[in-house]
């Protein structure tokens, strides 16, 4: 079978973050599939078709691209950030596992990108400089009890925590509840970073502390990093502070 | 103060992964500081000095670059992968916190890159498609007991685990001990991915299971991903399997 499917990470939203590999994969595609706002970031190319779909339509979008590839096309699914982090690569794999046997013979390539937590961390210092985890706060696809259990485990063991999908219109209370839960394990002064639209004109990065984090603005496009007991803040005159987690931990209780 | 310090992520080792932002930051530097093999990846530019140092010399390297920047230069520290993930950005922040007050006035920019776990994950499917953590297995800078506690917490709560710095000449037994520890929480059949030198000529990616993982080859440049109970393997004729972690979890016990 000659068809090809690429799953391409665009990075956090500016062409400065698009890798040459991703750029070449975009150029080689006959057809692009993706959430509308991600497709809008990709310059139009003659002869290349575009298939926009809604944010929540991951599985049908993956299936449509696979069908197209199975007909011999070079299809590409575009994804913000990295396609492997709470994004389209897992949806494509799911479709391949449960779809026609022939899809397993397709040439599939996944092109990594800069995921939001790396972009936000870079803007503020090195909050992910030591052990950390990435957790989606969406309870659309897993029970809320499991999210709480993971927050407990991560904060209790001293991981810095990057929260993806922190809030949406349909999920208004989860983020505040998560911050309250984390207060069981972490001091009020724990640094919390809010990053949005890094690398775009409307970029916004703010630093607060866990006790007031619930009052800070966040939306679906915000990536939040909650520090550990080790995370430090370096004040700087006239600039955002530097926030970092040291590479060394002296104490087991940390 | 006019000095500038950039901390630049080169990605996993091939120019296809170097972002345009990182490329521009490299071109703008008067002086490059870094571990020799990382510097060797950067093409020489006229008028740009290069200062190679040994792998374990992070703090002195950061201090040297900061001193140079404080003299008004555009200094850059280069890092493999992403500088914020077990790499140079935290070392630079540490030096700024404990160094001369004037260093806080320097213009510091951190340029993110594709970190190893994203590159390895992309090669094999989407093993990081759901909640995951990144853990350095080096006990040079933290007690081994803390690493075990974090392995317990992460595996017990269902995180996929990316292991950085899994082994070295001075740390021969830690990786095997970590796999044994994870067996307390995870079935023998749990997928384990070994990735090395992704994007380079000697790239090697292999998939095994937790019960035999300790027999598979690994070195300091290997990135290991241990799946969760949810992680799935899709066999494919004549190719590496696809390994992915589904976006949905139905059960709290997962």
Structure report:
By secondary structure, chain A is α/β, with parallel strands linked by helices. Helix content of chain A is about 25%, strand content about 25%. Chain A is built from seven helices and 13 strands. Chain A has helices spanning about 20-30, 35-40, 60-70, 90-100, 115-125, 145-155, 175-185, and strands at about 5-10, 30-35, 50-55, 75-80, 105-110, 125, 130-135, 160-165, 190-195, 205-210, 220-225, 230-235, 240-245. In chain A, the strands form three sheets. Chain A has a five-stranded parallel beta sheet, sandwiched between helices. A five-stranded mixed beta sheet of chain A has the order 7-8-11-9-10, with helices on both faces. In chain A, α6 (about 145-155) links the parallel β7 and β8. The model of chain A has no long low-confidence stretch (mean pLDDT about 95). Chains A and B meet through α1, α4, β5, α5 and β6 of A and α1, α4, β5, α5 and β6 of B. β7 (about 130-135) of chain A pairs antiparallel with β7 of chain B.
């Amino acid at each position: 079978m000659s068809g090809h499917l690429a799953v391409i990470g665009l990075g956090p939203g500016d062409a400065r973050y698009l890798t040459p590999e991703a750029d070449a994969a975009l150029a080689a595609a006959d057809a692009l599939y993706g959430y509308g706002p991600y497709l809008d970031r990709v310059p139009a190319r003659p002869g290349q078709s575009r298939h926009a779909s809604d944010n929540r339509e991951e599985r049908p979008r993956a299936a449509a691209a696979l069908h197209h590839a199975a007909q011999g096309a070079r299809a590409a699914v575009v994804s913000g950030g990295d396609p492997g982090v709470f994004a389209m690569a897992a949806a494509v794999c799911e479709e391949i596992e449960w779809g026609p046997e022939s899809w397993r013979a397709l040439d599939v390539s996944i092109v990594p990108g800069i995921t939001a937590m790396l972009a936000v961390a870079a803007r503020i210092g090195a909050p992910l400089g030591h052990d950390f985890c990435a957790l989606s706060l969406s309870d659309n696809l897993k029970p809320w009890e499991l999210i709480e259990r993971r927050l407990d485990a991560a904060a209790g063991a001293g991981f810095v925590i990057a929260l993806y999908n922190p809030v949406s219109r349909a999920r208004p209370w989860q983020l505040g509840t998560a911050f309250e839960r984390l207060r069981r394990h972490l001091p009020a002064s724990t640094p919390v970073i809010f990053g949005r639209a890094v690398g775009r004109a409307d970029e916004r990065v703010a630093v607060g502390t866990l006790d007031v984090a619930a009052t800070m603005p966040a939306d679906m496009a915000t990536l939040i990093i909650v520090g550990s007991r080790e995370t430090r803040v370096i004040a700087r005159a006239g600039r955002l502070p530097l926030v970092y987690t040291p590479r060394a931990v002296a104490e087991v209780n940390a």
